[in-house]
Amino acid sequence: MSGSVQVTQKLQHQHQHQQQQQHHYESSCHLSTKSSVSKQSFSTYKTSSRRLQTTVKTEKGKEVVKLSPLPKRAKRTYLAMDTDKEVIGYVIPVFRASHDVVRGLTEAQEENVTEEGINYVAMRNLFVREAREAMEVKVEKRTRTTHIRESAERMELGKTMEEWAEFRKKMNPDSLTHRPEFIVKPRGQTVWEGKTVKLHCTVAGWPKPRIAWYKNNVLIDAKAHPEKYAIESNYNMHSLEIKNCDFIDTAQYHVSALNVKGEVSSVATIVVKRFQEGKEAGPLDPKPHGFCAEHGVTFETTIIDKFEVAFGREGETLSLGCTVIVYPTVKKYQPEVVWYRNSVPLKPSKWVHTHWSGERATLTLVHLNKEDEGMYTLRVNTKSGFDTYSAYVFVRDADVEVEGVPVAPLDVRCHDANKDYVVVTWKQPAVEGSSSILGYYIDRCEVGTHHWAQCNDAPVKYARFPVTGLVEGRSYIFRVRALNKEGVSRPSRVSEAVVAMDPSDRARLRAGPSAPFTGMIKFTEEDPTVGVVPGEPSDVVVTEATKSYVVLAWKPPVQRGHEGVMYYIEKCISGTDIWQRVNTGMPVKSPRFALFDLAEGKSYSFRVRCCNSAGVGEASVSTGEITVGDKLDLPSAPGNPVATRNTDTSVVVTWGASQVKHLVGYYIEYTVVGTDKWMPCNNKPVKQTRFVCHGLTTRTNCVFRVKAVNAAGYSQSSPDSDAVVVQAAISVPGKPTGVSLVEAVKDYMVLAWTAPASTGGADIRGYFVDYRAVKGDVVGKWHEMNHKALTTTSYKAENLKENVFYQFQVRAMNMAGVSKASLASAALECKEWTITVAGAPVGLHVLEVRDTSVVVLWEPPAFNGRTPVNGYYLDVKKASAGEEGWKAAHEKTNKMKYMKVTGLKAGTSYVFRVRAQNLAGVGKPSAVLGPILAQTHPGTKEIYVDVDDDGVISMIFECSEMKEGSEFVWSKNYQTITDTSRLTIITEQGKSRAIFNSPSLEDLGIFSCVVTNTDGISSSYTLTEEGLKRLLDISHDHKFPVIPFKSEMAMDLLEKGRVRFWTQVEKCTSACQVEYVFNDVIITEGKKYTMNFDKSTGIIEMFMDSLEVTDEGTFTFNLVDGKAKGTTSLVLIGDEFRELQKKSEFERAEWVRKQGPHFVEYLGFTVTPECNVLLKCKIGNVRPETEITWSKDSIEIAEDDEDAQKIERKDGDLTFNIGKWVIKQEKPKEKGKKPTAEDVPPPPRPKISKADAGIYGVILRDDRGKDKSTFNLTDAGYQAVMNELFRVIANSSSEITVVSTEHGIILSSTVTYYNEELRVGWLQKDAKIAASERVKSGVTGEQLWLKINEPTEKDKGKYTMDIFDGKDGVKRVFDLSGKAWEEAFEEFQRLKAAAIAERNRARVVGGLPDVVAIQEGKSLNLTGNVWGEPVPEVSWTKNDRELVSDERYKLKFEHGKFASITIAAVTTADSGKYALLVKNKYGTEAGEFTVSVYNPEEEENKEEKKG
């Protein structure tokens, strides 16, 4: 026996008092409950537990039942095992609780369940399955033994209570939450007019409810009307104050309280009374019709400005609206406006927006889908009744991306949702594409994600599919795609979200939360059926069977305990006894299962087993043999459709119903006669067998057919209906006019008449002629002359009597009936005519009456005379003129049967007549037509040509005076157009449009349009070849309108790694809209995307904070500006996307880096114009305390290092001058010591050399972070620097100059600095100059030169100096020819001659001293070396006097080189200034010397004298 103990405990008591309270309650209570398990399980538990029950009476005579303690049992296992003791799964233990406790765990109703709440319910469902039964209380006396046993049970119960309390805290943290409830409800009141009334209420609930007040179901906005209402809420007490009550304040006032657990409301009525003289009407007094007791008036509702039948396309936005007039107008009273679709009220949603402005009701359908198609009804409810208006809305399919694929399915719904299973249904589309639909793919997406997963690998043809493998507690949405041979359709609109959960839990969620916590806690002992193998399921049936799958359903077993059970499904092929387990991997939780991969046509039997932690139960009863195949047959073809005319753009189609089960509806199709293209009339199936097909083209000939559809597919199409012309329903025509005689013979007469002005909306099918004899004033009876309708407006009346007078009348007939008879003709005599010329033309009438012109038309005479008619003459005269006033309107014969008469005078009446001509002559004139007033009818409009945005050329004629039965009749060259291959006529109310199907030269001519049943309203337009060409040009421009872009979509990387996609249009209007698309999915502004469209500049931007892996794809901007469209895209995939992503991440990292000291420009190099090589960088966000450290090859450059003097900082720029020459500080010189080599300053170092190679680095560091930059001045880095140095050197080179020398010509150029590694080449006439003894090149300092020794004529020409600049080289060109060559060569020859002269000039080259001191008496011999070519003449002088060779002076000149002078014994007289003079033709030179002769004795005497 399962027992339970009920303990009542107040919340305010502490835990330490629990046992005392339990003892008190148990002493007076007996608990019993009805078991929910079978008798077998009950007895089994009773035997195994061996728990005894005793009854004891207390002192007061009350009986109490006591239970023996439960025996200890082994720890439960939660592994599910089969009969072979193999683990097959894991079973979650189930916690048992009372029904009230379970209901307390429920969070909210289904539609208000949050995702967290759903997960919570799913988790809790693993532990809770059923509620305990209600408790019955009895009182008994107890013995001491019983008391001891109860004490033991109380201890066990206390432990159970502690465990339960702990569990409740974990599993039900919101146990105190409960739905709102009214502690004090508002009370109705009656007040006098002008007083103030206040409604009060008190509301409890947790979380704290939100309060809203309503008047007659209309929300009261106190902030908008503070002068009328005041709302207060303090400490769960709420009030509504109505100030200065008026009669219109009489109403029902609702107060609503809402929180996450539910909503409650209460109603109070306020009655405002006013003082009134006289007797007041009683409640039973009769009221007028529609009388409103609330306001005392009768409301009359009128709906105007009604919306017409509307057409939209998928993805567009459509608005419907009507203006509603409610009379009389009562202040602040508003009617209730409700919109319906197919008689179902519409609720506002993201797809449906409603608006009521007080006068106009508007319904906006956002992003149309085929589900939105249907009959829309506006219902206006007042207190006096209601008024409605309805019109149909058609939604056409969006254009398919691939020609021939089907359109999207529709109306996707979810049914029979369970823990891991749901059935998805949909409706087939109206258009299958170029081939039949092969099947459908079902996609699912978990709510909150954007990942769509395909549910079926092979397409299913049945419009119903079971989706398995769902995760319990999660929400899903579904969509469907159709497949045919051409491809896959667009996906359908997504379904409503569905939660994968147990149906019983769903029912509990719908039931709402339980009552607030009352202080009563119920505890349940451990389930006695734990450890029992579950029984067998029952009622295993096949609920669905198709070619693709079979769905099984069953009821859970009765014997299952309160532990969760799972199921195994087994199948057996017919004719065998082998049962195979289908779900071998894991048992299912739901009592539903879909089996796939069954062989079509084979028979199977199915059964189900249950399992839990105790093991696997017995199998259920087999379903019996089930043959795999569709249970639902295709619908039969509908009955013959009948199409009848309705309006100018609609046709009513009725048909016989299809005999089929579970009919989804019918699709109606139509085709224009002569074409093979069938088009849908409806894109959403209709269930009735009558449908009005709208949107047809007026006057087209259409055929209709119908097909039925159910879940199994489409039926065969019905037989085609009879062709029907799309135009308004018809009536009988008007009366014919102008019955006249056109020819007479002895026994017959030929009659003619004019067709009626009104055809009744249908073509005239014929005429009937009546006649009667006339004798004097006596007339006979009317008799029918023809029993078969005539098709012309003339008739040959035969079998008449000669010389007898007759009268005739004519009736017209169309498909609606026969008209009234025309006026009787004059009495006509039947006698033979003898004329040979043609008879009179008939049927004269005018069109296009204007102030100065009119068009006259006629029909040929019935009597041609002896020869056929070959032309006509038109006469005109003023109506007031006599017969002499007739004038011919033209000179030459008119071959046509119409003519435009111009030159009329406005306001003057004219009459017209026509004469026919044949070879015999001109016949009698016709009956006079007129008078016709030359005056343009007020409001008359001319035909104008229009080229619409689609490039369609059409002629438009408007008429504001349309009458019932009036029609637009178009003609070409005044012949009614019957061939629709060239023109398509569309008429809408007072406007008719003649559309050129394919404009060409065949369409040249006069096009006219006549409005029937009016006062001759008509117009014409002449299409010339020149005009046609102009229209075709305009058509092409309109047919392909595009929005011009100044620039296509581009991408910019911004700070923080943000990405900017942008484009710019040349021009757009304020109505231009942009659709942002990523990989064919429309994206909207949110956390990830930010959009901006500046219509003034045309710049469209979209920003992304970062690029993620999922952002790889195509970004597109779709622009729509009226009819003009524009699209620009940017594809970011593959390496390009990954590179961009890296750049974005780098920019983000750069932004983070720049928050501290950082390099604005990393360490690089530059070469100044002075050829100084600088390593430089730019730093930013530095502070005075920021450390800046330079290093080379990872060795820090200290402040006392020589390289430290090369570092400079100016503002944010750091530079390191590699080639800077650092002058060392001079050491003090020691006196008396010679300077050493170290003391001598070294020469300036080169700007850069190999010794400067290395890795240079700069580090910025402070408390905000650090940044590092390096420059590798080795290998490639060194070569890059050298190339830049070469570039600067090359660009600093001057233009080539020419200098002549005695040896030849020198070409040179000067550079700022020269490096030995710089390559310099010279070219003559673009050919490289080879080095030789005669032509040499080289460098001297900063001068680059080319020396040409002994130039000749061959050295003339263009010389080029090619200086390597790191790339191609810099060239300096000098043209050494012409005048430049002559001047240079002349100067060379001059210098050469001067050099020769200088070289061969006579001169003393040596041998003579400057001073000769010689003792007196000695012999003096001096020899001077002489040079000169030719040999110079030699002479000697003393004191400027020439010496002659004699005894004293011996002068010699030997070998042409040596000149000598000898003085044998010198005396003091020989002292003096001597010179050796040499002379030849190139010049003269003197070698001077001084001879001093001294006497030794005299010298001694002089010394002695001085001494």
Explain what you see.
This protein has 1507 residues and is mainly β. The chain is 11% helix and 42% strand. The protein contains 11 helices and 112 strands. Strands 57, 58, 59, 61, 62 and 63 form a 6-stranded antiparallel β-sheet that branches. Strand 102 (1357-1363) and strand 103 form a beta hairpin. Helix 1 (18-26) packs across helix 5. Residues 1-80, 82-139, 277-295, 511-527 and 1223-1229 have low confidence and may be disordered.
Which key features would you list for this structure?
mainly beta, six-stranded antiparallel beta sheet, disordered N terminus, five-stranded mixed beta sheet, 42% strand
Number of strands: 112
Assembly state of the chains shown: single chain
Gap from first CA to last CA: 170 Å
Specify the overall morphology. flat
Task: Give a quick precis of the structure.
With 1507 residues, this protein is mainly beta.
Which helices and strands, and how do they pair?
Elements (H helix, E strand, L loop, with lengths): L3 E5 L9 H9 L4 E2 L6 H11 L3 E5 L5 E5 L11 E3 L5 E4 L6 E2 H7 L9 H11 L5 E2 L3 E2 L6 H28 L6 E7 L4 E4 L4 E10 L3 E6 L2 E2 L9 E6 L2 E6 L8 E9 L2 E12 L17 E2 L4 E2 L1 E5 L5 E4 L4 E10 L8 E6 L2 E2 L6 E5 L3 E6 L8 E9 L2 E12 L13 E6 L5 E7 L11 E8 L5 E3 L9 E5 L6 E10 L2 E2 L9 E2 L3 H9 L8 E5 L13 E8 L3 E7 L10 E8 L6 E2 L10 E5 L6 E10 L2 E5 L6 E2 L14 E6 L2 E5 L8 E10 L6 E2 L9 E4 L7 E10 L2 E2 L9 E2 L11 E8 L4 E6 L11 E10 L2 E2 L3 E2 L9 E4 L7 E10 L2 E2 L9 E2 L12 E6 L5 E7 L11 E8 L8 E2 L9 E5 L6 E10 L2 E5 L3 E5 L10 E4 L5 E6 L9 E5 ...
Helix pairs in contact: 1-5
